[in-house]
Design brief:
Chain B: Belongs to the cation transport ATPase (P-type) (TC 3.A.3) family. Type IB subfamily. Chain B: It is found in: Cell membrane; Membrane. Chain B: It holds the Pfam family HMA. Chain B: Its EC number is 3.6.3.3. The structure holds 2 protein chains of 2 kinds. Chain A is mainly alpha-helical. In chain A, about 65% of the residues lie in helices and about 0% in strands. Chain A has one domain (about 1-45). Chain A has helices at about 5-25, 35-40. The longest helix of chain A has 25 residues, at about 5-25. Chain B is of the alpha+beta class. Helix content of chain B is about 50%, strand content about 15%. A 7-stranded mixed sheet of chain B has the order 1-8-7-9-15-10-13, with no helix packed on it. In chain B, strands 16-28-27-26-17-24-25 form a 7-stranded mixed sheet, with helices on both faces. Chain B has a 6-stranded antiparallel sheet with strand order 18-23-22-21-20-19, with helices on one face. In chain B, α5 packs across α6, α7 runs parallel beside α24 (about 700-720) and α11 runs antiparallel to α23 (about 660-695). Chain B starts with a strand and ends with a helix. Classes of the chains: A mainly alpha, B alpha+beta. The interface of A and B includes residues 11, 34, 35 and 42 of A.
Chain lengths: ~50, ~750
Amino acid sequence: MTVLLFLIPLALLLGLGALAAFLWSLKSGQFEDLDGAAHRVLMDDDVEKDK
Amino acid sequence: MTAAFDFGSLVTHGKDGACRFEAAVDGMTCAACIGEIEQGLADLPGLDHARVNYADRRLALEWRDARFDLAAAFERLRRMGYTLHPFELAESERAEIETSRWLLRCLAIAGFAAMNIMLLSVGVWVGEGGGDIDPATRDLFHGVSALIALPAAAFAGQPFFKSAFAALRAGRLNMDVPISLGVLLALAMSVYETLTHAEHAYFDSATMLLSFLLLGRFLDHAMRRKTRAVAANLAALRAPLACRLSPDGGETLAPLAKIAPGDIVLVRPGERLPVDGVVATGASQLDESLVTGETRRRAVAAGAQVYAGSLNYDGALTIRVEAANGATLLDDIERLLEKATNARSRYVRLADRVSRLYAPMVHLAALVTALFWMWRGASLHDALITAICVLIITCPCALALAVPAVQVVASGALFRAGVLLNSADAIERLAEADTIVFDKTGTLTAPEPRVVNAAEIDAKVMDIAARLARASSHPLARAVAQQRPHAAALEAREDHGLGVAAMVEGVEARLGAARFCGLERQAAEFGAFDAEVSLVAFRHGDATALFKVRQTLRSDAVETIAELKARGFAIEILSGDRVEAVERVAAALRVEQWSGGLKPAEKVARLDALRAEGRKVLMVGDGLNDAPALASAHVSISPIDATQITQAAADAVFLGERLAPVVTTLDLARKSRALMRENLALSVIYNVFAVPLAMAGWLTPLIAAAAMSGSSILVTLNALRAGRAPTAKADPHAAAPPPPSLYGRGEPPELEAAE
C-alpha cells in the first residue's frame, strides 16, 4: 500500500495543474468568446501566403 | 458624415497606460469576418491589439502609441463594410461579467474537489464490508479528503454562504440556508468522523452538492449575461449620436450621454431627434409617431418644443437642448416608468415560490429525523448523521437546476428565432399572459412609411425613381428607395424642400414634391385622399408617376392576430394615434376592443383596469409613449425599431419586420413553463422517495450521491427539450435572426386591401 503514498499526491498534483490551467485561462479572458474560438481554429492567418 | 467624432469620452485608460476602446460591430455576419476585421486593422500605425468578440459581436482596440488614429480605424472598417457603434460598458454589465467569472471559478474548484474526493471515496466504498481496505488506509483517505474538501468548500461555498447569511440576518429563510447548513454540518461531522476513525465521512456529498448547485447558478447567470450583452449592442446600434455645434460652427459627433442642456445640436433631414429641446433655427416637419402615436406630421419652426425620437422630414434643424430636470416629456415618462417597474419587481419567480415552501420543509424534516432517532434511543451522533443525510439527499440540486437549465435552453431557442429576453423571469410571465394589448404605430404598422401603389407603377420608372430616391435622405424618399433595395444611387443634386434631380439617359429625372415635377393637377386629382397618405411625384421626360406613401400594417399582422385569437388570447389595441386611424387598423385586423387618442398615463390606467379584472396582460409596443405601459403590463415585448427607452422597459425584444415572433415567443414560453413545472415535479417526486429512505437511515453515501447526480442529470436532459422551438407555424424569415434592418421583405398589405 506504500504505493498510495506516491499515487495520491501525484493524482492531486495533476488535478491541481489542470485546475490552475483553467483558472489561468479564465483570468486571461479565454472564456469570453466561445463562439469565436470555435471558428478561429479554422483560420489560416498563421500560414504565410507569399513564398 | 464628415463631422469629427468626440472619441475622447469613450476611451478608457488602463493602469499600464494602454488605451482601450470598445464598439459594437454592425455587419458582422459570419466567422470569416473575424479574420477580415482583425487583419484589416493589423497594420494601422500604433495599434497594439485588435480583437473581435464573435459571440458578442464586439471589437476591442488597444493601443499605447499616440500616433494611433481611431478615426482612421473607423474609416477603414467603414470601407470594408462594417459600421462601428461605440458604447460604454454599463456598470451593471461589468458587474455581471465579474459575477459570472467568479461563479465559474467556484465551479472549477468545487468540481476539482468533488472529483478527487469521489476517487478516494469510491476506494473506501469498494473496500468496506468484507473488502480488503484496512482502517489505517481508510483514515488516510478520509484525511486526504478533508484536506481537499475544507479549503475547496470554504472558497466555492461563498455564493451560498453569503446569500444564506444575508437572508438569516434579514430574518428570512431562502434556498441557500439549507444548502449552507447541509454543507457545513456535513463537513463538521465528517471531520469529527475522520478524527474518531469512523467508517463513513461525507466530504464527497458536500463537494458534489456544491458543484451541482454552482452549475445551476452559473447557467442562470450565463443566460442573462448573454442576452444583456446583445441588448447592449442593439442599444448601441440604435444609440443616436448627436451632432453638436460649437459656437464657432464646428461639428462634433458625440454620444448622447455627453450632451448637456444648453448645447446646440444639429439634426439633418431624415434623422431622428436625439434630444428634447427647443428649435433654435430652421423649419421642418416632424413625424412624432414614436413619441405620441400620432401619425400626422407636425410643422415646426424656431421656438417649437420638440421631443427625442421624432423623425425630421424636410429641413435641417438646430435644437437647443433643454434642461434634463425640466418638465419634459421624457421626464414624465421616466417617472411613470419608475413607478411601474417598482410595481412589477414584486413578481415572485416560480423557483423562488417553490423554494419558499421547500426550505422550511427541509429543515423541519431534518429536525424531526434527529429528534425521532434520539427518542428511539439513538445517540446524538447517530441522530445527527441521519439528519445530515436528510439535508443532503433533499439537497435542491435538481431544484436548483430545474429552472435555470430550461431558461438557458429556451432563451437560446428564442435567440435563434430572433427574440431577445431582457429579464430572467420573462419566460414565466409570458406563459401566464392571457390578454394581449397592442400599440398601433410602429407595432402593428411598420415603423417606416411605405409605397402602397407600387404594383401600378411601370418597372422602368420604378428603377429610376428608386435610384434617385437613394440619393436623398428624406424619409418619404427612403420609402421609394426601398422598392429596389439593391439599386445604386444616382449622382443627384438635392433641391432643398423640393426634391432631387439627376440626368438619366440625357433627360433630367426629378423626384419630389408635385410642383417640383409639374404634377400639381394629377396630385390634386388624388385630392380626396386622407391625411395619412403622402405623395411623392416623379418625372422623367414624359414618364410620370405619383407614389402613394403611407403607414402600412406589418406584413404578417393579420395572420398573427388571427393565430393569437385562435390560441384563445383576448386582443386589444391601445393607441395614441387619432381615433379614425386606429379604427381602420382595428377593422382590418378584426379586433373589437380598441381605443385611440390615449396619453401614456391613460394607457397605464387601462392596463391597471385590466389587471383589476384579474387579467395577465402582455403589452406589445414601441415608442416613448408606450414605455410606461410596457413597464406596467404583466409582461411586455417590443420590436427592435423601438427607441432605446422602450427596450430598457420591455421584457423581450424581437428583430425583423414581421410580427410572428410574438406567437413563437408565447408558444415557447408556455412550453418552457410546462418543462419547468415538469422538472420541479420530478425533483419533488425524487424527494418523496428519497427522503423517507434517508429518514429511516437506510441510505449509504454511495446511493445518496448516485441518486443526487441522477436527479440532476434527469432534469438537465428534460430541459434540453425546450430547445426544440415550436416549428409548426414557424416561418422561414423567423428561423434565422435577420439583421436589425429598417427595411423589411415582401409586399406589405395596404390597410384598405385587408378590409
